[in-house]
Design a protein that fits this description.
- With 301 residues, the chain is of the alpha+beta class.
Length: 301
């Protein structure tokens, strides 16, 4: 009888002990689950914060002090608003033009110059996007053109924020035309900047242009006055010295007037002294007589 009671007592104690153990394990597991849930929710919050998009920088932040306006690329009006910035790139290009307090076009910048694509863009038969250019005051003079800061061939539009009255010879055959040709042949450019200056605040006719840009990894500087380069060369006694019967690099020109030391080679200094603008590209008749140290097809970049 006593043995039976002891057995029942031990059985009862075993049941109680097992029950307490299960309750403790359940309690511990519940705590772990809640902790995991909190951790998971916290992780999801961090991911949501990480994936939240950063607000795009506004134009006012990019160009403080300027008001951004939109002007149709083919607007023929010669009027410009003061202290504004305008996108003068055709299509999706972003070429930024700036005016000063007098409404003069004083600066144009572009991270990348993208050449005109006549196969995929609405280009006219004359190679232009628009049939005419903006009539900025001054272009009515016979010796001045509606000169693009960034040409159609380089992806620029034709409104007043990309046009200045520019000497016709300079625009068509001089330094401006040469600069555009260099960029075209290089397939484009980066870090482009044009600085345009004026003789006074009352005219829209610039007195000077300064261009800087990078092509093939080399920085190029072009700087010139808004004058007829032929008349300047003539006044300096340079007329006839920088021409040849052929522009082909496979044929020799006369370098006797340029090669001042008579060694049969032309240095950058000699070329500059003779009135040539840098860089000299490989299709220029002077190129075979010059030393292209990095063999990139340009000298004096």
């Amino acid at each position: 009888m006593i043995k039976k009671r002891n057995f029942l007592f031990l059985l009862l104690m075993t049941i109680i002990f097992v029950g307490c153990t299960n309750i403790e394990e359940i309690s511990n597991n519940k705590g772990k689950t809640e902790s995991q849930e909190v951790t998971t929710n916290h992780s999801e919050t961090e991911k949501a914060a990480e994936t939240e998009e950063t607000p795009t920088q506004s134009i006012s932040d990019m160009f403080p002090g300027y008001r951004m306006i939109k002007v149709d690329g083919g607007d023929l009006s010669g009027h410009r608003e003061p202290n504004v910035v305008v996108d003068i790139g055709f299509g999706d290009r972003q070429y930024w033009a700036f005016t000063n307090e007098y409404g003069q076009l004083v600066r144009v910048i572009a991270d990348e110059i993208i050449l005109q694509d006549e196969r995929n863009e609405p280009v006219l038969s004359n190679g232009r996007y628009y049939s005419d250019e903006a009539k900025v005051p001054g272009v009515e003079r016979e010796d001045l053109d509606e000169g693009h800061i960034i040409a159609d061939s380089l992806g620029g539009v034709s409104n007043a924020y990309n046009i200045t009255p520019q000497n016709s010879t300079l625009n068509r055959h001089g330094d401006q035309a040469y600069m555009e040709e260099v960029i075209r042949k290089a397939g484009g450019a980066t870090n482009f900047e044009a600085i345009i200056t004026y003789p006074n605040p009352y005219t829209q006719i610039p007195s000077h242009y300064k261009y800087t840009y990078i092509i093939n990894g080399h920085k190029v500087l072009e700087e010139f006055d808004n004058v007829d380069p032929d008349k300047v060369n003539e006044s300096l006694g340079l007329t006839g010295n920088n021409t040849s019967t052929s522009s082909s690099s496979s044929q020799k020109g006369d370098i006797t007037a340029i090669d001042t030391n008579g060694d049969g080679r032309v240095t950058i200094k000699e070329a500059k002294d003779a009135g040539f603008k840098m860089p000299i590209t490989k299709d220029h008749w002077l190129y075979p007589y010059m030393h292209d140290a990095d063999n990139d097809g340009m000298v004096g970049e």
